[in-house]
Amino acid sequence: MLLRASSQAAGEEVDLSAAVEDAADGGVEDGAVLTAFAEAVVRAADGLDAARARALETLGPAKFVEAAATVGIFNGLVRVADSTGIPSDAMMLESTADVRGDLGFNRWAGARASGVAEAPA
Amino acid sequence: MGFDAGRFPVPVREDLTTALRRSWADIGRPGTWWTGPERVAIAALARAERIQRNEPPWGRNRGEPDTALPEKAIEAARKIGADPMHLDREWAEGIIAEIGDARYVELASVVVTTVAADAFCEAMGIGPEPLPEPEAGEPTAERPDGMGDIGAWVPVQVVDWKRANVARALSLVPEGVRTFFRMVVAMYSGAATDFEKMVWDHRPLSRPQVELIAARVSALNQCFY
Question: ipTM of the predicted structure?
């Protein structure tokens, strides 16, 4: 998982549960603002306007644009993976083996394409 | 031209708007297996369905599709656009049996390009970009060499591949790869040399900040990859 690898490279300890919890900061600077913004866009939530305004105010224009771009492109990238059933890379599977089960990733439909599926909870 | 700088509430990097503009124009052009009008129809179906993503599929207002696309292509554009967490091999194989693997991959490439651009506009707080005018012309119908089975639902490039699998997921239609991954470079990864670094200095956000967003969006879509 690139979140953990990049945090370690920066000398930071990230809490990976931020990937699956609402508005969690994960120990990343402005993390809660970023995740709340991403959640509001993906969910087309009523609070999107407020989440966007908070992101812009907290991050400033340049970082806000990057956050919006990341949200946008990952909405495409997840569909590339999930529409083609592309298996995960071996290195990623190995590096996430210790956390996937706890975070619930192995119960998602796409886990079957990588041969690590667990029964849905 | 599309994605005009004046539409955005704050300044947007020129390389980003250029990539969006070029990929958007690609949607309207004849592809490898679909015509320009068919590609724009696919984009329109995905957009209309995704707008209603908070409604269950059976509760969405669809009306009569204004397109001559095959029924299975209409179904695929809608489902990939709005319900990516509910895709599975059996479903994909049913679609592919009707429209063919390369047409399915090209359809997916149009949908993901549309969704990424639309989600960016939503995040920025502006309305969706009008769909491009379709251009006349025939698809090239060129199937690339070097395709093989790595366990995906579709054939992918297998010759001398050293990058991440997701980058070859659409490789059965190289033009679709170029259209979408042009946006990936501008909106996420930067050049290959930047992507390999775990500490980024080419973007205003730190890499952990970018990857936190990426992880959260992936998890919300229940994307295992």
Answer: 0.96
